[in-house]
Amino acid sequence: MFALVVRFDCRDLAAAQRFDELTVDVVREIAAKEPGTLTYTTHAVAGEPLARVFYEVYRDRDAFEAHETAEHVKRFHATKDPLLTATRVEILEPSPR
């Protein structure tokens, strides 16, 4: 399994609204076209109206690579990037038991 958390900080409220609209479309495509994507959950951040967080779980690193190179994801990245002031990606590792 391969998992990550991504935080996006939007420029302003209009950018956040547009980001949310784009997210609805890409999440629908991810669910329909990416069997290796096990979880792709998006969140707003309480008390931070310009922040969004995605929690993503993939079958393996290959499934993540397939996700990143999918046309719908590349289109999402290209369209959302101008709306943002910052992006932070954290790769997750399982905790010792």
From TrEMBL:
Entry keyword set: Monooxygenase, Oxidoreductase
UniProt KW Ubl conjugation keyword: no
Superkingdom, taxonomy of origin: Bacteria
Pfam families found in the cross-reference section: ABM
Residues of the ABM domain: 2-92
GO molecular function list: monooxygenase activity
InterPro entries xref list: ABM_dom, Dimeric_a/b-barrel
Name listed for the protein in its UniProt record: Quinol monooxygenase YgiN
Source species: Paractinoplanes brasiliensis
